[in-house]
UniProtKB/TrEMBL annotation:
Pathway: Amino-acid biosynthesis; L-valine biosynthesis; L-valine from pyruvate: step 4/4; Amino-acid biosynthesis; L-leucine biosynthesis; L-leucine from 3-methyl-2-oxobutanoate: step 4/4; Amino-acid biosynthesis; L-isoleucine biosynthesis; L-isoleucine from 2-oxobutanoate: step 4/4. Its EC number is 2.6.1.42. Keywords: Amino-acid biosynthesis, Aminotransferase, Branched-chain amino acid biosynthesis, Pyridoxal phosphate, Transferase. The keyword Transferase applies. This is Probable branched-chain-amino-acid aminotransferase. GO terms for cellular component: cytosol. It comes from Cohaesibacter celericrescens. It is an enzyme of class 2 (transferase). Gene3D superfamilies: 3.30.470.10, D-amino Acid Aminotransferase, subunit A, domain 2.
Length: 284
C-alpha cells in the first residue's frame, strides 16, 4: 500500500506528490523539520514539537503556511489516512519556491510537507541490547539549536560510524562531546550523577532530553548540565541517548570498548520505562 503524504494543502499517494525544483528547501536547505513519534496511532508530546517548530522558524524569520492548530489537525488527519499505529510522523516547512537567490525572497509562500514512517518504537533490539558509538569530529554549523534539514554533516558522521562497525557517532568539538548524529548524549558517572551538556547553540534542544531530565530529577537522580569529554564516557558507569525516535536507548560500547560490562545500565533502563509511561500519558 502506498503511503498518503501531505503537500501544500493536498493529501496524495506518495508517487503523485510534487514539490518545486525552486523550493528553497531543495536549493538551500532553507527548511525546518520536526519528527513526532506515533504510539497507539497518536502523537507523543506533540505540543513540545510544535513549540520548537515555531522557535525554529522564528529564528530564521520564516513564516508558517498556517497556524500551529491547523498543522496539528493535518498531522492527526495524516495518522488516520495512513492508519499508522507505531512509528513517526515527519513534518517539514520550507521558505517556499522562488528564483534562486541567496537573499531571502520577500513574497514566497512557505511549503508544508508531511509523511509517516511505520516502525517499532517500544520493542526494539537497540533498546534491549544497547548500541555502540564511536566519536567523530563535529563539523556542523554553529546554530545546531535550529532544527534545519541541513543534515549532511550528521549523515556523513552516521555513515562513518556504520563503516567503522558501530551504530552511531557522538560528535566531538574542542575536546568535548556535543551530541549524537540525531540524538542527545548523556552519561551516568560512577558516583551516580547524570551528566548532560547544557543547552546552547551547540546542540539541538531535544524534546526527549527535556522530559527525561525532569523525570530523572523527580526520581532523585542528580542531574548536572555540563560538557563532558570522551575520556569521561570511557570511565562512566553508563551512557545513553535520547531522541523522539529512540526514546531512551542505552549506549554499551564506546570507541570499540565496552562501558563497564557492555550491558545496558540500570539508570538508562529505568529512565526508558519512565519515559514510555510519560509518552503514553502525553498522547494526542
Ligand atoms: N540532537 C540532534 C542533532 C537531533 O537531530 C535530534 C533529533 O532529531 C536530537 C538531538 C533529539 O531531539 P528530540 O528528542 O527532540 O528528538
Amino acid at each position: 500500500m502506498s503511503r498518503i503524504v501531505y503537500v501544500n494543502g493536498e493529501f496524495l499517494p506518495e508517487d503523485e506528490a510534487k514539490i518545486s525544483v525552486f523550493d528553497r528547501g531543495f536549493l538551500f536547505a532553507d527548511a525546518i523539520y520536526e519528527v513526532s513519534t506515533v504510539l497507539q496511532g497518536k502523537l507523543v508530546d506533540n505540543a513540545a514539537h510544535l513549540a520548537r517548530l515555531q522557535r525554529s522558524v522564528d529564528a530564521l524569520n520564516m513564516g508558517l503556511p498556517c497556524s500551529l492548530e491547523e498543522i496539528e489537525a493535518i498531522q492527526l488527519e495524516m495518522l488516520k489516512r495512513n492508519d499508522i499505529n507505531e512509528g513517526g510522523l515527519y513534518l517539514q516547512v520550507t521558505r517556499g519556491a522562488a528564483d534562486r537567490d541567496f537573499a531571502f525572497p520577500k513574497d514566497s509562500k512557505p511549503s508544508l510537507v508531511m509523511f509517516t514512517q511505520s516502525r517499532p518504537v517500544i520493542d526494539t533490539a537497540a533498546a534491549q541490547n544497547g548500541i555502540s558509538v564511536v566519536t567523530t569530529p563535529d563539523i556542523r554549523w554553529q546554530r545546531r539549536d535550529i532544527k534545519t534539514v541541513g543534515l549532511l554533516p550528521a549523515s556523513m558522521a552516521k555513515q562513518t560510524a556504520l563503516d567503522a562497525g558501530a551504530n552511531d557517532a557522538w560528535l566531538v568539538e574542542d575536546g568535548f562531546i556535543t551530541e549524537g548524529t540525531s540524538n542527545n548524549a548523556h552519561i551516568v558517572t560512577k558516583d551516580g550523577v547524570l551528566l548532560t551538556r547544557a543547552l546552547s547553540n551547540k546542540i539541538l534542544h531535544g524534546i526527549t532530553r527535556k522530559a527525561v531530565l525532569a523525570l530523572a530529577e523527580e526520581t532523585g537522580i542528580t542531574v548536572e548540565e555540563r560538557s563532558f569529554t570522551p575520556d569521561e564516557v570511557s570511565n562512566a558507569a553508563e551512557a545513553f541517548i535520547t531522541s523522539a525516535s529512540m526514546f531512551v536507548t542505552p549506549v554499551v560500547t564506546f570507541n570499540g570498548e565496552p562501558i563497564v560490562d557492555g550491558k545496558p545500565g540500570k539508570v538508562a533502563k529505568r529512565l526508558r520505562e519512565l519515559y514510555i509511561a510519560f509518552a503514553l500519558k502525553s498522547l494526542k
